[in-house]
Amino acid sequence: MTDLKTTKRRAATPKPAAQKKPARKSPSVDNPGKVLKRSRYSKAEAYEIFQRFHADNPEPEGELDYVNAYTLLVAVVLSAQATDVGVNRATKTLFQIADTPEKMVALGEDRVREEIRTIGLFKTKAKNVVRLSEQLIRDHRGEVPDDREALEELPGVGRKTANVVLNIYFGHPTIAVDTHLFRLGNRIGIAPGKTPLDVEKAMEKAVPAEYGLHAHHWLILHGRYICKARKPECKRCVIYDLCRSTEKEQIDAIPELAERVAGWITAGKTRLDA
Ligand code: SF4
User: Fold this and answer.
1) Do residues 230 and 249 make contact, with C-beta atoms less than 8 angstroms apart?
2) Is residue 135 classed exposed, middle or buried when 0-12, 13-18 and 19+ CB atoms within 10 A define those classes?
3) So which residues are the catalytic ones?
4) Cβ < 6 Å from ligand 1: which residues?
5) Can you give the residue ranges of every domain in the chain?
6) Where does [4Fe-4S] cluster bind (predicted)?
7) Residue 263 to residues 87, 236, 255, 266, 271: CA-CA distances in angstroms?
8) Which of 15, 41, 76, 220 has the most crowded Cβ, counting Cβ within 10 A?
9) Cα 232 to ligand 1 centre (Å)
10) C-alpha of residue 244 to centroid of ligand 1, in Å
11) Would you tell me which CATH number, out of the four given (1.10.8, 3.90.1150, 2.60.120, 1.10.1670), belongs to the domain 43-61+191-266?
12) Given ligand 1 and candidates 245, 257, 259, which is best to mutate, with the most ligand atoms within 8 Å of its CB?
């Protein structure tokens, strides 16, 4: 005979709530997640990835405004934890008044601070801009050195900033690992690493020599506009069929742009002449 009390008790016991899967976090410098030991791509596959980026955008450009090596250096220093649009807005007037270290020193820290006050960390950045200008005048005759070590000795200039200046202004095939490159390297598994320096070294190995100069820009633009942190836009991705990311959106057919870009390569064309 069924024990009525037990049946009632069982019926009253609430079912455990279905466990919600925690949302997958994109790799970031603070939280790289599980890092692969090596790239997910063969040399030929990595080559095709950069060939696609090249076909789609043969002459990629950075988005910071500058008029010479010095203003580029200052703009990159100001861009830490700020958007390029925000930096351009702030430097529009600043670079009209001060486009050399001498003029910046003459302007003085208080005035520089006023000009850039819309940018995060503006107090520290104003101090660094004036101090680095003084150091350029003292140690480099007011010129921006084409040398990593010398650049990294300047106040507010770290490895990433030095890499950007060396790449954009001096034409070295350096890879500056910012938040976008760090995420991409780990997310798609082309240059996995726990730290920005690990990713930089892995990316240097992955990028074919002939694409070294523009790789940095392609990757930043791809991370900023397509393979975004929260929701990658896989449908617009030119490397969709090559991508081995576990975060890739599953789509029935290869996105049209990826197919077209692959077709341009076969036909020996680029987006410019497509
Ligand atoms: S397919 Fe998606 S996840 Fe892969 S690189 Fe493109 S946007 Fe990023």
Assistant:
1) no
2) middle
3) 160, 178
4) 188, 226-227, 232-234, 237, 239-240, 243, 245, 247-248
5) 43-61+191-266, 69-168
6) 227, 234, 237, 243
7) 38, 16, 13, 5, 11
8) 76
9) 6
10) 8
11) 1.10.1670
12) 245
* Interval 171-218: pLDDT, tens: 999 999 999 999 999 999 999 999 999 999 999 999 999 999 999 999
Give the model confidence (pLDDT) of 120-166 as tens digits.
Answer: 999 999 999 999 999 999 999 999 999 999 999 999 999 999 999 99
Q: What class has domain 69-168? A: mainly alpha
Of all protein residues, whose CA lies closest to atom 8 belonging to ligand 1?
A: 227
Task: Ligand 1, residue 236: give the atom nearest the CA.
Answer: 7
Distance of CA 252 from the midpoint of ligand 1 (Å): 15
